[in-house]
Structure formats: structure tokens, C-alpha cells
Amino acid sequence: MNCRTATIGKTVYSCRTCDHKHTIYRSCKNRFCPTCGILETFNWADRILNNLLDIKHHHIVFTLPKPIRNIQKRNSKIVLNAFFDAATQTLKEWFAIKHNCIPGIVAVLHTAGSDLKHHPHIHMIVSSGGLNCNDLSVKELQSEFLTRQRFIANKFKRIFSKKISSLHPKLNLGIALSKKSNFKAFLNKINKKQWIVSIQKPLANLEHIVNYVGRYSKRTCISEYAISSIENEFITLRFKDYKNTPRGQKPNYAFRKLHYTKFLDLLLQHVPEKGFRMVRYAGAYNSVYKKYIPQYSKTTAENIINDNVQWDEFPHIRKLDIENGKDDPLVCPNCKTRMVDKIVLFNRNPIRLNDP
Q1: Is residue 41 part of a domain?
Q2: What is the DSSP string of 100-140?
Q3: pTM given for the model
Q4: Residue 100 backbone dihedrals phi, psi, to 5 degrees
Q5: Residue 229: which domain range?
Q6: Contact (CB, 8 A) for 58 and 201
């Protein structure tokens, strides 16, 4: 609630020629803050852009089957780690056998649907090719079609089931599934159904890919715009109604009115456990292979702001203003000169920073 207010602090830039000042209020950096989440997404996108292969990438989504979600709630870290491992192993094995290469994988966990229900799924950005297994040279697949979704789903099903079975002694399963034979029968019943994996056509523009997956990386499970109204003790949530939208069409919106206690229950179930990594890198994007990734050259408006002025946590605010055709906020509107003097007010204690 104190984000972007004087309570947290502010930075004041001033012009040396006239008395003009430009004030930016500091951020709270809380993951559940919608404003900070956007900025953190931009920062994350910038950090990984130079570490991706400059080739096509696919967006692939793995979904945890509904019967396993209750088990995941009681054994969050164990099951979600197995979920990550099984999904990445599925793709790495398939790429190695089919194309003799190591794919680059950025995996981001989401536990919520737009209606805040418990719906664990992993969004993956997967290179359409990767590093050749023989000499680690870059290899791009020519086809726009990767493989059949059901084939990957069945392979993922086998790998995950094997992993979760081996973890049975560590799981809190309750009386009904405490016996290994009962748990095995439970998995066999689930495995008779089709598991869901979605593979989309490749995206060619690397910056678009990074910005796309960035939406799932550093932001909370709900946007402030999803709350349509707050009246007395009730909150009305707007969400995408995929269930009642014809396939292939843009999703319709629906509304759900909740008492604030129910709303908070739904919201807080998606807060990850302390230390749990929601974003993971595998295959060619593991740090082991970093030296084999050719550096990607960025040519955006970011080059405009790569000067000697320290902009602390605000470079993307300035970058967005410039890209959207607004005046550079660091240029004095009166004198048209660069503002460089800064005073940082934090906990009501002013600190003057000399310009470089």
C-alpha cells in the first residue's frame, strides 16, 4: 500500500541550470505488488535476453492432472520439483533421440487459473533446436511443427508417474493411499486418461518471446485490473471463462463475487514456499552451457538510456516513456539539458549522490 509513496522514499533529479526537479517515488519490490511486478518482469527479460539462442522458440505448457493436485497441496515442494524434473526430462530426452541436440528450456510455474482456482501448470519457452550433442554448435529445426502433443503428453505421463512412485515414502498421502499398492492403483487409474500438454507454433522474434514468457515470471497470480469492484465485505473478480467459450475463439469474461475471506484464501494458496524456485532453466539454458550461447545484440530504445547516469531501479520507466513517444523524463523541459544531481530520501534521511 505504501508503494510509490513518500513513506518508502523518493529520488529527486534536479537541473543545474534552472530550478526544475523531477521526483520518482521508490517501489516496495513485493511480488504481489502489480506495479513492481511489471518492472521486475522487464528486468528479468533484460537479464535473460542475452542468454537465449537466436532461433525460433516454442511455447509449451505442461498441466498437472487434477487428481494429483490435492496431493501436491499437501506435499508442495516434493511434487512440484518432480513436476519440473519430469517435464524438462521429457523434452531433453525427445530432442536427444529425435534431433541429436540439447534444447534450451526456460520453465515458469503457475499455480493459478484466471479465476484463482488451484491449477498447477508449467509454461515453457523451448528452443526449436538447440546445441548439437556432438560439437555443441547451434542447430535450428526447419519445420514449424515440433511433434504431436499426445506423444509428448504420454511420455511425460510415464516419466512423472515413475518419479512420484519412487517418492511415495516421503509423501503425506493420508490413510487411503499410504500403502504403496493403493497408491500404484491410484496412479494406474489416472494414467488411463489423457494428460494435457499444449505445444504452440514457434515464435521467431526473440524479444517477443522473452516479453511473452516474462508475463509469467515475476508477477503475481492476479492483476489489480481483475478486481472489478469492492463493496462492503465482497470482492467481484473478473476472469477469462475458457469453459464456456467456443474452442478457437477469444475467451469470454465472467464474474465471481466472493467474500473477502474466501478471496484471500484463494489468493494465498498461490504464495510459493520460502526458497522455492518458480523459474528454472534447463538443457542448453543451464549455466553449464552458457559459454556456448552466442550473444544476442539488442537494438531497442534501451540504447538511448545506456549513459553514465545511475538510474537505480527506474531505467524501464524511462525506457517506456521514450518508446511511447514521451519526452525523456531525465531531460529538463525548460533548459533541454540532462538532469544529473540526485537526492535520495529514504527513511526521511536525505543522501546527496554526486553525478559521475
Answers
A1: no
A2: SEE-EEEEEEEEE-TT--EEEEEEEEEESEEEETTT--EEE
A3: 0.78
A4: 55, 45
A5: 223-269
A6: yes
